[in-house]
TrEMBL record:
GO biological process, one term: intracellular protein transmembrane transport
Domain Protein export membrane protein SecD/SecF C-terminal: 241-410
Protein name: Protein translocase subunit SecD
Bilayer topology: Multi-pass membrane protein
Length: 428
């Protein structure tokens, strides 16, 4: 029964590994499916892009409100860079002394000047009451209704002229203000100003409730789309200033990725050669288990997906070395049992039991360290910590389940083990 169970587990591992292979390195006929389903997600340093650091002016913000203002800044900037086509931009805040800073990592952005322009935009929309003939600035009386109360904006078309117009929806507070303004201006004119310039003057026919309005400023399609994007992105809750800018070319990123992959392959091959030469028959199984670990972890990184950076690749390569550590501990414990005269399978079982405590303690220590690094360090270190953490968790499965299952299925229950695992290694 035990042999049949081990065989079924081995078959399942093989099926899962083949599936993982198609996702990691898709080939026909599943190439398009695997690639379109979940492509690799590469970080700024691998795919190229822009790294922008802004300083927020908090001089007019109360101390108690600064954290919430920074959170608002982060949300607004994320919305704005989404219009650049950046897939899941990484925007985070940091405080250095008395300075409040925002960092935007925009992977794949080709036009950094456009990114800077869009992030720094502070569109101002406000409604003003017309008190005169509208020919002088004094004829427009400022109201409290501004763009800060906009909940959403959308692009619509005039049913008569088919011209594009911008439909606005205010939040609950803005809806009340809009209702009050239109209520006291029935039969009068109300002007809409964008960035200090009047774009529409309309006569209020009746009090408007519900918090919805339309702007028909004879816009072109491009202008209307831009306005919708700007309104949906929102105004910045505090002024920001660009203080640092770095651009990484896609060519440099691709070169770094190729070197990282080459280093990982060379390291993996060296480990496998060492294991086969030193542990013989057992080394072959540990090498196969290592390949399965690489496939499973790489597929996991791709499917989740995990953003792969150079630091992340380093963490992944390190986890490969740690994965083989477990096999070495197991084989050494198994060798000790072989010297006592146990049969192969009995030695394997006992070797796994004796090695488990060391493997568990070592991996738990690494997991704790990786978690601390992830939560208390900069974004560059987070990639290293995350891939290391995931790699260690998967390596525990590959070392304990995959390696053990293969050995139990293929190793014969005999006493002569010289061809299986050299027992004279390490003799004093």
């Amino acid at each position: 029964m035990g042999k049949q169970k081990n065989f079924l587990i081995l078959v399942l591992v093989i099926v899962v590994s083949i599936t993982a292979l198609f996702f990691v390195y898709p080939v026909s006929p599943v190439a398009n499916f695997a690639t379109n389903f979940r492509p690799w997600k590469l970080g700024l340093d691998l795919v190229g892009g822009s790294y922008l650091i802004y300083e927020a002016d908090m001089s007019q913000v109360a101390e108690a409100d600064r954290e919430s203002v920074m959170a608002g800044l982060r949300d607004v900037i994320e919305k704005r860079v989404n219009y650049l086509g950046v897939s899941e931009p990484h925007v985070f805040s940091a405080k250095e002394g008395e300075s409040y800073r925002l960092v935007a990592e925009l992977a794949g952005v080709k036009d950094v000047n456009q990114a800077i322009m869009i992030i720094g935009l502070t569109p101002t929309l406000d409604f003003r009451e017309v008190t005169g003939d509208g020919t002088k600035a004094e004829d427009y009386k400022t109201t409290s209704l501004t763009g800060r109360y906009i909940k959403s904006a959308s692009l619509n078309f005039d049913q008569t002229t088919s011209e594009p117009l911008v439909a606005l929806e205010f939040n609950s507070e803005g809806a009340k203000i809009f209702e009050e303004i239109t209520g006291r201006n029935v039969g009068k004119s109300l002007a809409v100003f964008l960035d200090g310039v009047p774009i529409e003057v309309a006569t209020v026919q009746e009090k408007i409730s519900g918090g919805k309005a339309q702007i028909t400023g004879r816009f072109t399609m491009d202008v209307a789309k831009t306005l919708v994007e700007r309104f949906n992105a929102g105004a910045l809750p505090a002024p920001i200033t660009l203080i640092n800018q770095q651009t990484i070319s896609p060519t440099l990123g691709a070169d770094s990725l190729n070197k990282a992959i080459l280093a990982g392959l060379a390291g993996t091959l060296s480990i496998m050669v060492f294991m086969v030469l030193y542990y013989g028959y057992f080394g072959i199984f540990s090498s196969l288990a290592l390949l399965i670990y690489i496939l499973l972890s790489a597929a996991f990184f791709k499917i989740v997906p995990v953003t792969m950076t150079l630091a992340g690749v380093a963490g992944y390569v390190l986890s490969i070395g740690m994965a083989i550590d477990a096999s070495i501990l197991i084989f050494e414990r198994t060798r000790e049992e072989l010297k006592k005269g146990l049969t192969r399978k009995a030695a394997i079982e006992e070797g796994f039991k004796r090695a488990w405590t060391s493997i568990r303690d070592s991996n738990v220590s690494t997991i704790i360290t990786a978690v601390i690094l992830y939560y208390f360090t900069s974004s560059f270190v987070k990639g290293f910590a995350l891939t290391l953490l995931i790699g260690v968790l998967i390596s525990m499965f590959s070392a304990i389940t995959v390696t053990r299952t293969m050995l139990m299925v293929f190793v014969k229950n005999k006493n002569n083990l010289t061809a299986c695992l050299p027992v004279d290694r390490g003799k004093s």
